[in-house]
TrEMBL record:
Pfam families: CP_ATPgrasp_2
PANTHER family in alphabetical order: BLR5612 PROTEIN, SLL1039 PROTEIN
Domain Circularly permuted ATP-grasp type: 71-447
InterPro entries, sorted: ATP-dep_Glu-Cys_Ligase-2, CP_ATPgrasp_2, UCP005522
Protein's name according to its UniProt entry: Putative circularly permuted ATP-grasp superfamily protein
């Protein structure tokens, strides 16, 4: 059986240097004190209203994401390599999307099959030949990273549409600073609080009119959206207006915001709703969340939408499997961050292998998210495996499969004390017209249940603060 890599302790049980101060601190800290601090953190989260809803659950009740007070530590050198790989990945994603809606060299070269583009439900014909500011489509990316050994970080998933979770990254740090100042004094931790400034600078750099003070707004579906807290949080941090579709209107292909002082032109819209709901005149006519005429203003080059319309063509799990080749094609470089080995069930040889090895594999829907629509073979019973076998035979193109990774673990406060739990990491990469910005760290998600590999909040996962050491 493969040994699971624990980020705090080596194979012989010795503490890795980055965790030595934390381990000494934990040894001196009574469990009752840690538990009391955890309750204080939960109280603060509840007081400031950091909750989320799980769609499809009865009453869709708002609830807290569990917060673990034991930080995850990443060394300066580890982060430096990781950041280079993230920048390379997002650069290739932008080149790919620009090409798919433009010359389509990648399709003619046979790097990516045409059907994965043209039959992709996220492909937007409206974007064919459409130039976007600075040829950038993915301005805010969330790249999910997992680790299996001391030297290897894998990309698990690319989130190029409206990645969420950054508010938890920032609030987790605020709460840790408040509750554990003595622990920070033992470490030189890189700050994350400049994310809001970086995001605002990125958004302003994308204005179609230029200028030093373009008007930026965050477009939210409204208070019933599961990520509404994050929308309002970011608007407050950035000092920009949080608007709903009814707050905006289009005149002469220019977007305006209704204000008490009269109409105010909007240059950049950080939209937190899906393409389908952006404009009832262009997409779903029954949408009451969007702005009639918004696509016309966008296509006229009078407003920047971030992320751009149609970015979903790059972030499904089938296209993900081609990302190493996409990086080589556009950048003539080897990928710095490897993919998880992936079987494309649309290919007969891959399908045969997957069907023969279902109990060993993780099977995912190509367009699935949130931990739904998955089979974790080693954790599934025979009935669940047979259900997925039937699904695969019926619609193989809708699935990919991957080996069950031994995700790294980090020390986590649980009922019985501090114990290892599996984690992943979502860093946030900002691509502006001037440069790429990445705050050190990201959102670490943790599977709070012993042995579980599913870190998604909708499946009971929690979060923890991510510390990148400055030296």
């Amino acid at each position: 059986m493969r040994r699971i890599f624990d980020e705090m302790s080596g194979e012989d049980g010795t503490i890795r240097p980055a965790y030595e101060a934390l381990q000494s601190w934990l040894e001196k800290m009574p469990h009752e004190v840690l538990e009391q601090r955890r309750k204080e953190a939960e109280f603060i989260f509840r007081r400031i209203g950091i909750t989320f809803a799980v769609y499809g659950e009865q009453n869709s009740q708002e609830r807290l994401i569990p917060f673990d007070i034991v930080p995850r530590i990443i060394t300066h050198d580890e982060w430096t390599g990781l950041a280079k790989g993230l920048e390379q990945r997002v650069k290739a994603l932008n080149l790919y999307i620009n090409d798919v809606y433009g010359k389509r060299d990648v399709l003619r070269a046979g790097i990516v099959p045409e059907e994965l583009v043209f039959q992709n439900p996220a492909f937007r014909p409206e974007m064919n030949g459409q130039r976007v500011p600075h040829d950038l489509y993915v301005h805010i990316a969330g790249i999910d990273i997992v680790r299996t050994d001391p030297n290897t970080f894998y990309v698990l998933e690319d989130n190029a549409r409206t990645p969420s979770g950054v508010s938890y990254m920032l609030e987790n740090r605020e709460i840790m600073l408040r509750l554990f100042p003595e622990l920070f004094s033992l470490h030189k931790v890189a700050p994350v609080d400049k994310y809001a400034d970086d995001l605002l600078a990125t958004l302003r750099s994308l204005s179609p009119r230029g200028g030093s003070e373009p008007n930026v707004a965050i477009l939210t579906p409204g208070i019933y959206n599961s990520a509404y807290y994050e929308h309002s949080f970011l608007a407050d941090k950035l000092g920009v207006d949080l608007v709903e579709g009814r707050d905006l209107f289009v005149k002469d292909n220019v977007v305006f915001m209704r204000t008490t002082e009269g109409p105010k032109r909007v240059d950049v819209i950080y939209r937190r709703l899906d393409d389908d709901f952006l404009d009832p005149l262009a997409f779903r006519p029954d949408s009451v969340l969007g702005v009639p005429g918004l696509m016309s203003a966008y296509q006229a080059g009078n407003v920047t939408l971030t992320n751009a319309v149609g970015t979903g063509v790059a972030d499904d799990k089938a296209v993900y499997s081609y990302m190493p080749d996409i990086i080589r094609f556009y950048l003539s470089e080897e990928p710095i961050l490897p993919n998880v080995p992936t079987y494309r069930c649309r290919e007969p040889e891959h399908l045969k292998y997957v069907l023969d090895h279902l109990p060993e594999l993780v099977v995912k829907e190509v367009h699935g998210s949130g931990g739904y629509g998955m089979l974790v073979g080693p954790k599934a019973d025979k009935a669940q495996i047979e259900v997925f076998r039937a699904k695969l035979k019926h619609d193989p193109a809708n699935f990919i499969a991957q080996p069950t990774l031994a995700l790294s673990t980090c020390p986590t406060l649980v009922e019985e004390g501090v114990a290892p739990r599996h984690v992943d990491l979502r860093p946030f990469i900002l691509s502006g017209s001037d440069k790429v910005r990445i705050v050190p760290g990201g959102l670490t998600r943790v599977a709070m249940k012993e042995g579980s590999l599913v870190v998604n909040s909708s499946q009971g996962g929690g979060t923890k603060d991510t510390w990148v050491l400055d030296t």
